[in-house]
Amino acid sequence: MKSYFLRRLLLMIPTLIGITLVCFIIIQFVPGGPIEELLSRAQAAAVAKGGGVDAKRAISPEQIEAMKVYFGFDEPAPVRYLKWVGKVVRFDLGTSYSYGEPVWDVIVSRFPISLFFGVTSFFLSYLICIPLGLLKAVKHGSRFDTWSSVAIFSGYVMPGYALGILLIVFFAGGSYLNLFPLGGLVSDGFANLSIVEKGLDLLHHLFLPMFCYMLGEFAFLTLLMKNSVLEELGKDYMRTALAKGLTFRQALVRHALRNALIPLATRASEIFTLMFAGALLIEKVFDIDGMGLLYYNAMVNRDYNVVLGIILLSSLMAMLGRLFSDMLYTWVDPRITFK
Fold first, then answer.
1. Domains of the chain (ranges, CATH numbers)
2. Counting Cβ atoms within 10 Å, is residue 338 exposed (0-12), middle (13-18) or buried (19+)?
3. pLDDT digits over 216-273, tens only?
4. Contact, 256 vs 240, CB < 8 A?
5. What distance in Å separates the CA atoms of residue 321 and residue 63, rounded to the nearest whole number?
6. Cα(33)–Cα(21) distance, rounded to whole angstroms?
């Protein structure tokens, strides 16, 4: 078992190299770059002043060459990639073109927000979906099962950002009720509030976006749990347990429940990637400056160091999540072994 996990850890190194190399190659073929972005801003500034001066005339060729040297684009692409890998080995992701700060600092400043939303929505989904799926399986075919399935599927087919817009319209000062704020994480006078008031204010702002974050995962986990329990209830060991005198509830809790949790263990690996994946459109709707919005802005502004940094860290967390999922397998069902 230890050798298996050790091999998986060692395989992460060439996998990360392959992922970042492919992404780096793709970036080379994407039109534009940080220099072109600066030139376009200079053009926009010239037009705003009413002079109509072309950006390439406003910025001399010597200045453009100096910018290439500053950003490292005066060297061939293979050399730039090897230098970037050398920095990564020293835990340096480079400097952001847009923010002028180390990529680590840029990511860390947004990371707590996505971490909170990702981890909180993950645990809330599991805490609600496991008992709900179990109850739906026990009451399979009943009115409760039917109407709860209708509600779950209605939420599942609606994108989170679309639901966010509807919630704002109906509950956040739109055409109807004004129960929640339009967006953001805290109120303007947050620093002057007491600890209890700060907690209530934060929950007040988080309620609607958290609901949208949980929507898709909530429906999937509930149905996965229900189907898994139904499958276990039809197996021979359940009939044997009942024949030996156990009540249905005892057989369900002692035997079926633990086996039914095995498929859900595969989804547990997502806790490592939720904090980096983010929900771009949800963050845009509720004005939340998290990792999803950071990645989008980095792509738009051609901030390739930030893009590669997020890809590297999210890929690493995804592989660690798969490894964590395998560990959960062995904990939920000790009969499972990896060689």
1. 103-332 (1.10.3720.10)
2. middle
3. 677 778 888 888 888 888 888 888 888 888 888 888 888 888 788 877 777 766 666 6
4. no
5. 46
6. 18
